[in-house]
Each structure stands twice: as structure tokens, then as C-alpha cells.
Task: structure prediction
Amino acid sequence: YYEAGTHGREYRENRGAVTIADGAFIYSGVVVSHGVVIGAGSRIGANSVVTKDIPESVFAGGAPAGELKKI
Result:
């Protein structure tokens, strides 16, 4: 939808909610994109950028975040 602001029109698109399963930890400074699912028991390392779904029970990190090891 469009929202009129002080600087003209701003485009905002609803792309879906972020889903964080039970037991998942997201450390400080993490950015998560719209519609991403973070699996149960997973850990996302500090300052990571999550752009894709993260499976269950993995440690993920980086920019873009990827699976680093199973836990």
C-alpha cells in the first residue's frame, strides 16, 4: 500500500511475518528479512543478516546467514 508522508509517497509492501520457533535464540544486532522462518532450537550469531529460512537445531551466522554447524 502507499502511505503519504512529509516527503511524498512511500511504498510499503507486506511480505509476511517472521516466524521464530520454540527454543530459538537470536543474538544482538541480527537483521531478519520478511517471511523468514527460524527453526526450533536454532541459534543465530550476533550481527548476522538472515535472508533465507534457517532449519531446526543449527548454528547460523554471517551476512547473509548460513548454516555453520548442527547443534
Q: What stands out?
A: The first strand starts at residue 2 and ends at 5. The two ends are 41 Å apart (CA to CA). The beta strands are 2-5, 8-11, 19-20, 25-26, 31-32, 37-38, 43-44, 49-50, 58-62, 65-70. The chain has no helices and ten strands.
